[in-house]
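Course assignment 3, question 2. Fill in each field.
Student: A.L.
Task: Predict the tertiary structure for the chain below.
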Amino acid sequence: MRGSSLAVKGAVLLVAVFVVFKFGAPLVTAPLPMSLIWLYLFLTTVGIVVYGTLSGESTEALLGPIFRFLGGEGLNGVAQLARLAVLVLFPLLVGWETYSDLVPSSQPPAENRTIHPAPPGEFVGLANPVPNTPENVMMGKGLFAAFCSPCHGPKFNGNGPASDGFNPPPANFVDPGTIAQLQESYLFWRIKKGGVGLNVEGHPWKSAMPRWEVELPDEWIWKIIMAEYAGSGQKPRTWE
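Answer field:
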């Protein structure tokens, strides 16, 4: 590749990756948090740089136009204005995007909100088959720490290190309005099927939680549920 074609193609690829994950992914699965999209863009950028620096000629084709533009080398009046706009607007856009993603919001989605949609019939009325023993609860807490605490937090309050990047945010199990209002069978469904498995009426609040049935056997999920109730100080809802 000669001239600035490699840099242009790299920029086009980054835009395409952003469009696919930002606007295409929600059409087939749960919306991706911007933190994850930025990670994909970073990995794509690394791949472009690695590919573009395999030789001296490709390095010049990729990085030369970028360095000359940022340094103002050989730019006329219009190009200088464009350079200044990029240097000013890009940090502002990044800052605004970061602020928009992290600032708390109390606004509900435009669609009707269904916080706890009815689970499919196969999950209704299931009973936890795992005995609620200290050993099983302890194992459940270990599984929760490994698989759930990055989002739901080590204190079960939805304040894990990865929680800031998600909308809606991870559930706060300490809040009496969450799992205390639910049966264990409901939690089993939500953990097993994740955000993708949410009913149509719950899509406005579809989360990015993965389908844990891929990684976790049913017994582990039931133990995690026991740990969530024990760690949050709540009890499962019953219908007696």
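Instructor remarks: The CA atoms of residues 156 and 206 lie 20 Å apart. The radius of gyration is 24 Å.
Grade: pending
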